[in-house]
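Hi Q.,

Before the meeting this afternoon, I wanted you to have the adenosine monophosphate prediction in hand. No need to reply - just skim if you have a minute. The sequence and ligand are here:
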Amino acid sequence: MTDILRTTAEVRARVAELKRQGKTLALVPTMGYLHEGHLSLMREGLRRADVCAASIFVNPAQFGPNEDLARYPRDEKGDVAKCEAVGVSFVFAPTPEELYPPGFQTWVEVEKLQLGLCGGARPGHFRGVATVVTKLLALFRPEVALFGEKDYQQLRVIQQLNRDLELGAEIVGMPTVREPDGLAMSSRNAYLAPEERQRALALSRALKAASHLRQNGEHQSSKLKLAAHAELANAEIREDYVEIVDAETLEPLEVIDRPARMLIAGFLGKTRLIDNGPL
Ligand code: AMP
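Predicted structure with the ligand bound:
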């Protein structure tokens, strides 16, 4: 049975009990509407710790005023059934008031990593992410917390805050789980009309085209970006950004002379999708 906990007090008690039993804990924070990408993190959590917990919280603090907070897809019952099937012991699904009670005023910002890319396009987004993840890591005190490379800038932000604030978890980044045709799994794929779903393949195609050029010895970022732009333009995806960055610092690279990643964000109608891959 997967238990649903609603309050931080319940989580604190549950975690204390686990510690008394000498059990290690893995945490997988999510916004719900779970898919195989999320479940892959939970399965890995169970390989690395005795007990795996998940959180399901559509965090208002990481949405801008004109973003999709109100229509973000939700299916708590289905999510809990999936967690149960994977072997997750408990799910923390709080209300926004539980995590942001009246008078809340402490925010976490990761100064440099939050700039640019999705941070540039979505002001305040990473402040919201960093704050909620800090709260979850402080509350659960997990040995391991698992996050997807699908949200690469987010992963780097979380690794940094975990280190800077001595939160003591091992932060594990897991590879992006894709549909058979290459589309990165995302709860937001549910927004796509069938015709948009088809065009969305251009994101993963753009990454492939760039990686192909890289493998053939091209190290000028501009050349790789041109290939990516062409794929996106062909599918009439409105680009938000196409960047090639240092895989650790996320600083833009003109010449690829170290571990690097291409990160892409684009709009299909109102739906904003992101994807990224190593170069
Ligand atoms: P979300 O519910 O979208 O906030 O995602 C919760 C966690 O699942 C984050 O660490 C994401 O990076 C991760 N995640 C989302 N989609 C995927 C995917 N396709 N493959 C692997 N991890 C993912």
